[in-house]
Amino acid sequence: MHFILLDLPWWGYILATLLLTHITIASMTIFLHRHQAHRALELHPVASHFFRFWLWLTTGTVTKEWVSIHRKHHAKCETVDDPHSPQIVGIKKVLLEGSELYRKEAKNLETLEKYGRGTPDDWLECNLYSKHSMLGIMLMLVIDLLLFGPIGLTIWAVQMAWIPITAAGIINGAGHYWGYRNFQPSDASTNIVPWGILIGGEELHNNHHTFIGSAKLSSKWYEIDIGWLYIRVLTALGLSKIKRVAPKVHLDTTKTACDIDTLRAVLANRYEVRAKFAKILKRTYREEITQLKLRLPDFGKVDLKRIKSWLHVDESVLNEQEKLKLGIVIRTSQKLSAAYNLRKDFTAIWQRSTANKEQMVKDLENWCHRAEASGIEALQQFSRRLRRYG
User: What is the mean pLDDT of the chain?
Assistant: First the structure.
């Protein structure tokens, strides 16, 4: 055992493995994801090269391939062209075969050409990191064996499995299937858990899909993005420069009417606004349907699960029979009718491509008047809050 450089107790090997894999996760989220793919921060050449070198050792990742596939994922999210959407190919396939999906897309030269612009193309990248990606992995095996002895093989195996399981499987799979949503982007992204520690903050996937260019992934006070902490430390050391973070909501309590500033603020925070509105509508629909069931004995025979889902979708996706059933239910309740029509009109405001800003402000103010006249307390509160954006 004299050749082992580090002779550790059993728990020491566990801690060493966690440390090594965590450095890999930090390298992925800071360098590959936030810096390279989304340009949310700049990195000093020293920090940038350390992360690139470490990823070569521990994953064999080719920067251009990873960045290209990730950018395409955002551009084609939840469509047949998405490289790894569980909504399209199934959650089981992404969880168990995420790395295979990655390797398949990495062979698509069109993807690399279209989405890989701006990635490193220096001598080291062309002649070492990209050309000999497996060399780094083999070098890591030798290092682990020299440091830890035979158990180094197990540590190396965990290192090799870490990114395929956490990033290719969990983030790409569970992050578009299970969890909670702070915001309502057009895709199915979720926050897996509010504590982004094990996977460097990437657990906050819904937040990321909402504010793609933000260097900070946490949004709520109780959410932890450890990757952001590392970025702040690097910035304090002069090794990084933060370029973009998600906008903060500013409410002006003195405002009582919508103006251009309101419009700009609502547009900047549109996903948060949509999420709050969807939450209010869900509660309003639920409460009113409960009251209808008490007032109308025959109402319980209606397929309420489907009705509740239809209340939240665009009418265009329903067939004629579904529209007819939904219309019958809506006409039984003034509150349901008001809430449903306000939802449609609120969506329509942002879809009028020909409307100028002044017209949109008028439409928004008119919508607020109608919401406050609806008699639905939750919508009245939402309207008053909306007017304070600015």
Answer: 91
